[in-house]
């Protein structure tokens, strides 16, 4: 499958797929292989909230790239300090670290349906995923929650009052939103071109967002059955 020219200002981030990785990304999962749904959206877009509901309704396993990175950061491992510096600066952690954490969690669980929340965050993430995973897993779809910058700021500042997270402050929030726009949106547009993206207005009440999310999951499940 030829690479889509995103015509995006971050030209160096364009995807470089070989034929094997393209087949992996866009071929429905065989019955004996786990399926992955990527869940994307700006910081504070409500990805985690909707993932909890999906887990309850459909039995998916929810893996948050951010949560895995934060847990590793607190573990005292050799890469904890590196992860800390990237997260605090609102930058994307090197793909090797994130992919290995996700794959370890998937292998440990042994399930058949996974929600991967907050990943891939740039085209390098996606390329790294495909190079590492190969055809062991199938990307079945992408859930994209769209929320304006002003709403995200208000949500995260409110969350920061009790979250204890070092990145829930105005400076980090603005950096994270800019990173999302510059680095993650090209990934979303690539998947949209492939017909894999289900978009939702994440600024609406949680139950309204869930109604649309549930409908999208039912459609995806029908394709995976």
TrEMBL record:
Q: Name what cofactor the protein needs.
A: Mg(2+)
Protein name, as recorded:
UMP-CMP kinase
Record's comment describing the protein's domains: Consists of three domains, a large central CORE domain and two small peripheral domains, NMPbind and LID, which undergo movements during catalysis. The LID domain closes over the site of phosphoryl transfer upon ATP binding. Assembling and dissambling the active center during each catalytic cycle provides an effective means to prevent ATP hydrolysis.
Which residues are recorded as binding ATP?
44-49, 159, 204
Listed GO MF terms: ATP binding; nucleobase-containing compound kinase activity; phosphotransferase activity, phosphate group as acceptor
Listed under GO biological process in this entry are: 'de novo' pyrimidine nucleobase biosynthetic process; nucleoside monophosphate metabolic process; pyrimidine nucleotide biosynthetic process
Kindly list the positions annotated as binding a ribonucleoside 5'-phosphate: 70, 91-93, 118-121, 165, 176
E.C. numbers: 2.7.4.14
The free-text function statement in the UniProt record for this protein reads: Catalyzes the phosphorylation of pyrimidine nucleoside monophosphates at the expense of ATP. Plays an important role in de novo pyrimidine nucleotide biosynthesis. Has preference for UMP and CMP as phosphate acceptors.
Q: Which InterPro entries match?
A: Adenylat/UMP-CMP_kin, Adenylat_kinase_CS, P-loop_NTPase, UMP_CMP_kinase
Under Pfam families, the record lists: ADK
Which amino acids does the record list as binding CMP? 125
Family, according to the entry, reads as follows: Belongs to the adenylate kinase family. UMP-CMP kinase subfamily.
LID: annotated span = 158-168
Q: How does this protein assemble? A: Monomer.
Cite a GO CC annotation: cytoplasm
Compartments (UniProt record): Cytoplasm; Nucleus
Going by the record, the broad EC class of this enzyme is transferase
So what does this thing catalyse? UMP + ATP = UDP + ADP; dCMP + ATP = dCDP + ADP; CMP + ATP = CDP + ADP
**UniProtKB keywords:** ATP-binding, Cytoplasm, Kinase, Nucleotide-binding, Nucleus, Pyrimidine biosynthesis, Transferase
Q: How is the cofactor bound?
A: Binds 1 Mg(2+) ion per monomer.
């Amino acid at each position: 499958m030829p690479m889509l020219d995103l015509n995006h200002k971050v030209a160096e981030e364009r995807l470089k797929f070989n034929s094997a990785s393209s087949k992996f990304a866009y071929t429905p999962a065989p019955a004996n292989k786990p399926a992955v749904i990527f869940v994307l959206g700006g910081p504070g877009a409500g990805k985690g909230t909707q993932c909890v509901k999906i887990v309850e309704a459909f039995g998916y396993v929810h893996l948050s790239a951010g949560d895995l990175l934060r847990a590793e950061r607190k573990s005292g491992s050799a890469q904890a300090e590196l992860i800390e510096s990237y997260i605090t600066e609102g930058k994307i952690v090197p793909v090797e670290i994130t992919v290995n954490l996700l794959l370890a969690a998937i292998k440990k669980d042994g399930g058949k349906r996974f929600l991967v929340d907050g990943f891939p965050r740039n085209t390098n993430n996606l390329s790294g995923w495909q190079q590492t995973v190969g055809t062991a897993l199938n990307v079945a779809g992408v859930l994209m929650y769209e929320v304006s910058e002003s709403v995200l700021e208000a949500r995260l500042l409110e969350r920061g009052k009790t979250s204890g997270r070092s990145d829930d402050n105005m400076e980090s929030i603005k950096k994270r939103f800019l990173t999302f726009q510059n680095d993650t949106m090209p990934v979303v547009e690539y998947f949209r071109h492939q017909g894999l993206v289900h978009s939702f207005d994440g600024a609406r009440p949680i139950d309204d967002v869930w109604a649309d999310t549930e409908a999208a999951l039912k459609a995806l499940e029908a394709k995976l059955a």
